[in-house]
Amino acid sequence: MANLCDEAKERYFVVNEEKYCLKEEVKRAVELYVMNIFDVKFTQLKKFDYIFSRNLFIYFDEPTKKRAASILESLLKNENSKIFFGHADLL
Q: Which of 13, 25, 79, 89 would give a disulfide with 57, using CB separation of 3.0 to 4.6 Å?
């Protein structure tokens, strides 16, 4: 939270017992899914502004890593969208 500006803290969080908690309206705007990246349903998701990959690629050989990266890239909304890879996700 130290790197977050005061405006963002006020907009997205409430303080509860000295801890920052996401506001309920922010929580309602988020959808979480458990899916396999190679499942056809995964590629039919909406387009995203940001995608976070945390240590996904450590389980794959090089050709599979490239395939997974291509799938993630296909889900980006536009040229300003970004994928954030975990430290173990280097290609």
A: 89
Tokens of 16: 């509860």
Q: Which two tokens stand for residue 19?
A: 């801890």
- Which residue is listed with tokens 């005061």? 6
Indicate the DSSP class of residue 39: S
Separation of alpha carbons 2 and 26, rounded Å: 20
Nearest Cα neighbor of 35 from 44, 25, 24 is 44
Place of tokens 């799938």: 71
Structural contact between residues 39 and 20, judged by C-beta atoms closer than 8 angstroms? no
